[in-house]
Amino acid sequence: MIRTYKFLLRPTASQAALLKAMLADHCSLYNGALQERRDAYAHSSRTKIKYRDQSAQLKDIRTFDPERQGRWSFSSQQATLRRLNVAFTAFFKRAQKRKAALARGVAKELAPKAGYPRFKGVGHFDTVTFPKDGDGCRWDSTPNDRRTRVRLQGVGHVRVHQHRPVKGRVKTISVKREGRRWYVILACDEVAPEPLPATGSIIGIDMGTTHFFTDSGGVHIDNPRFLASMAGRLADAQRVLDTFPKKTKRRTKKHSAAARKVAKLHAKIRRQRLDHHHKTALVLVREHDVIGHEILNTAGMTKAPAPKPHPENDGAFLPNGAAAKAGLNKTILDAGWGLFLGILAQKAESAARRVIPVDARNTSRTCPPDIGGCGHVAKENRVTQAKFECVKCGLAENADRVGALNVLHRAGLALCGGA
Fold it and tell me: 250 with 160, same domain?
């Protein structure tokens, strides 16, 4: 089993300056490699530069610029070039999808855009990866957490706030900057699962926006709405930031402070959401052996509605409810369903529990047979957002619980079929 650990770094002032220089130099390498690919394509569309070609140039680059590129890990620089290669691979896939859409007759403005890889600003290049422990970096964990260090080539031994033991074998090490904080991320394999005692309980959950989720027992978990609760402070901070010009050659101290404040608020929201998801998922895993949930296409659910051209007025568009949909999209993204379900799956795997994703279609429109319902499926069964009333047998129940009961029913069928 693979597990990732994230620990806070506590660098000295000089080490923090070296970490910033390491990010800046890797960012420069990334942008230089991207520029080389752009220039080659501009010269001839048939000229292709791949990762192996640019990796072969690293030795000469390090020799030519020993003060900037030569002092950092060779393997970490290769990882940066692989990162660019992954970006181009994804770009070519998107370009093929756009080409196929245009061939089907989809209008240019409606076809998915390919999105060519862009240059990274120093403030937006925040991660350096070391592909192997012991090659340019070394995790030096000791029984006493206060003495834990990570050794980074060109930086030295940086103190780590290790708040939990690391299990398994450390494979890759990444250094990440978040605002003014520095983190080390360890990817470990060969981690043994830690099974929890069996409870004999199986449950279905229905994700929502009014409630974070409702289980098949009728228990509602409140939606914390972290983004909405911080909306006022975010608006004030963003308003101050917007008073500065968008494009400047050099930021003033006040401009930088305003940008840091906005980033700090977003980081706090992200940490609050992550903490909530971890704690909620842990409760589910501890109390239930099998957990069923819907397969949710969050990207599709939060997609902006397509424009509706006016049939009589060329160039004009009909109302498509984009403003109302934007509010719903923000609420869905604030809830973070995909993040939560991913955390739930990881914790379940570690505890030897089972998570069963089921088809989400008509879960809130089907009369639940598990509580004496008739199984009738109709749009009219969902009276309101919170009320369900079957038009055939008259069963009345909370709509969210009905969805959870149907998820439980489908999970049970999948469990029996897989047994």
Answer: no
In the predicted model, what is the mean pLDDT of the chain? 91
Asked if residue 152 and residue 10 are part of one domain, the reply reads yes
Instruction: Say whether both 97 and 210 belong to one domain.
Output: no
Given a cut of 50, whether residue 212 has pLDDT beyond it is yes
Per-residue pLDDT, 418: 55
Sign of CA dihedral 331, 333, 336, 337: positive
Alpha carbon 292 to its chain centroid, in Å, reads 22
Residues 125 and 216 in one domain: no
Positive or negative: CA dihedral 408, 293, 192, 161: negative
Residue 289 near residue 199, CB atoms below 8 Å = yes
**Maximum Cα–Cα distance across the chain:** 80
As for how many domains the chain has, the answer is: 2
Q: Give the up-direction half-sphere exposure of residue 409: CA atoms within 13 A in the CB hemisphere.
A: 19
Residues 328 and 396 in one domain: yes
Please say whether the beta carbons of 11 and 20 come within 8 A.
no
The Cα 392–Cα 316 span in angstroms is 44
* Residue-range definition of the domain harbouring residue 351: 202-418
Residue 194 lies in a domain: no
Query: Residue 196 domain-assigned?
Result: no
Q: What is the pLDDT of residue 408?
A: 95
In this structure, are residues 203 and 213 in contact, taking their beta carbons and an 8 Å threshold? no
Residue among 74, 42, 37, 71 nearest 54 (CA): 37
Distance, in Å, from the CA atom of 35 to the CA atom of 25, rounded to the nearest integer, reads 15
**Is the distance from CB of 20 to CB of 175 less than 8 angstroms?**
no
Burial 267-295 (b: 16+ CB within 10 A, else e): eebeeebbebbeebbeebbeebbbbbbbe
Domain assignment present for 375 = yes
Identify whether 389 is part of a domain.
Answer: yes
The pLDDT confidence band at residue 361, using thresholds 50, 70 and 90, is very high
> Does one domain contain both 68 and 164?
yes
| Shared-domain flag, residues 61 and 91 | yes
Q: Say how far apart CA 356 and CA 339 lie, in whole Å.
A: 16
Q: Are residues 220 and 82 in the same domain?
A: no
Residue 375, phi-psi category: left (phi > 0), alpha (psi -120 to 50), beta (remainder):
left
What's the pTM? 0.85
**Is 80 exceeded by the pLDDT of residue 263?**
yes
